[in-house]
Amino acid sequence: MNFAAYKPAMMTLLKKLVETESPTYDKAAVNRMGAIVAREASKLGASIEVIPKKTVGDQVVARWGSGPGGFFLIGHIDTVFPVGTLGMMPFYEKDDKTYGPGVLDMKAGVVVMLQTIIALQESGKMPKRPITMFFNTDEETGSYLSRKIVKKLARDIALTLVFEPSENLDGSLHTWRKGTGKFHLRVQGRAAHSGGAHQKGLNAIEELSHHIVRVQGLTNYDKGTTINIGSIQGGRAINIVPAFAEADGDIRILQVDEYKRVENVIRNLQPVLPDAVIATECILNRPPMPFDAIMEATFDKATGIAAAEGLEIIAGGSGSASDANFVAEMGIPVLDGMGAVGEGFHSESEYILTNSMIERLQLTTALLRDW
Questions:
Q1: I need a surface site. Which of 21, 103, 259, 273 has the fewest CB within 10 A?
Q2: What's the rounded Cα separation, in Å, for the pair 339 and 325?
Q3: At a CB cut-off of 8 Å and minimum separation 6, what does 12 contact?
Q4: pLDDT at residue number 362
Q5: pLDDT band at residue 203, thresholds of 50, 70 and 90?
């Protein structure tokens, strides 16, 4: 097949998607994106299910065929860029690169998903297995409102493909990802005048500082565990002993046991200063996606299919998480990073290598045709 012939149509759709700004927190904006992908999938013969959500965009499911043992393709249509970003960061092409808010993460991946159906249909190679696509609307904020539907749709699936961008310019697929968690520390002290009654106060910032050092020290690079205190607040003025202080942090782990170790310390923190009170919260958002036996077998099979197509795929990994983490936890074969290749996602310099969409289209078509 001449996959390059699809490039003009793919670029036209990509431009439409990028210029339809869709930040997670703007439900109406994300729904406009959802309407476009639903319409495009419907034109290709999909049955469409729209799952209403109160606070984020309505989720869209597109299906071709039915029954167990099919393919599950996951993308998200929300971005981190607020409406109006296009004014400073327009969609444009230059030197084999395409720029724009969300072009890499992950509107190019959505284009690949939809174009794959066209390639399969036009070649007469639509698989007998059913194909289900899920367009998530809150991935950028942790998939808290979508994880249940991801797990439900992933049941009895032969292969899941996730169209997050490759985070490396070599185009490597994500065959492992770290799990992600977060925590919150809040300290209550006692306010007092910093000059006239300093000894009567209990400095909540001082108390919090002890715990920040303790928790940050739980980082273990050898085991792939990192802790990042990313935000702290406390106090009102320099002449008041602060009565409160709080901090929020990020957890990244390769092993569930490491999360349990970190969680145990955080949940059992005890005050250092007399009469101080500390409250903690700690949650695991996404479990780790390890390079285990299932992943190794999945990647090996994909490598063989790609090689027969004249393509080489590379195994890689990421310290970030995606919806693939939920699927991997279920023991279902999954390949991630199937979207475009580029750099600068979540930044003003976000871009894709334009032709990487064509390469991903060829790979995805081969996987669904020959799996």
A1: 273
A2: 16
A3: none
A4: 98
A5: very high
Q: Is 279 exposed, middle or buried (0-12, 13-18, 19+ CB in 10 A)?
A: exposed
Query: C-alpha 22: how far from its chain's center?
Result: 15
Q: What is the mean pLDDT of the chain?
A: 97
Per the structure block, which two tokens stand in for 176?
């492992």
The model's pLDDT over 277-287, given as tens digits with 9 standing for 90+, comes to: 999 999 999 99
pLDDT in tens, 323-335: 999 999 999 999 9
Are the beta carbons of 362 and 309 closer than 8 angstroms?
A: yes
Alpha-carbon gap, residue 352 to 341, rounded angstroms:
6
pLDDT of res. 339? 98
Pairing of strands 59-64, 131-136: antiparallel
* C-alpha span between 175 and 302 (Å, rounded): 12
Q: Render pLDDT for 105-155 as a digit per residue (tens, 0 to 9).
A: 999 999 999 999 999 999 999 999 999 999 999 999 999 999 999 999 999
Cα–Cα distance measured from residue 9 to residue 115, given in angstroms and rounded to the nearest whole number: 9
Report residue 196 as tokens: 């006239």
Pairing of strands 244-253, 179-188: antiparallel
pTM flag (> 0.90): yes
Average pLDDT value for residue range 306-321: 96
C-alpha–C-alpha distance, residues 40 and 26, integer Å: 22
Predicted confidence band of residue 311 (pLDDT cuts 50, 70, 90) = very high
Given a contact cutoff of 8 angstroms between Cβ atoms, the answer to whether 128 and 67 are in contact is no
Amino acid, res. 129: R
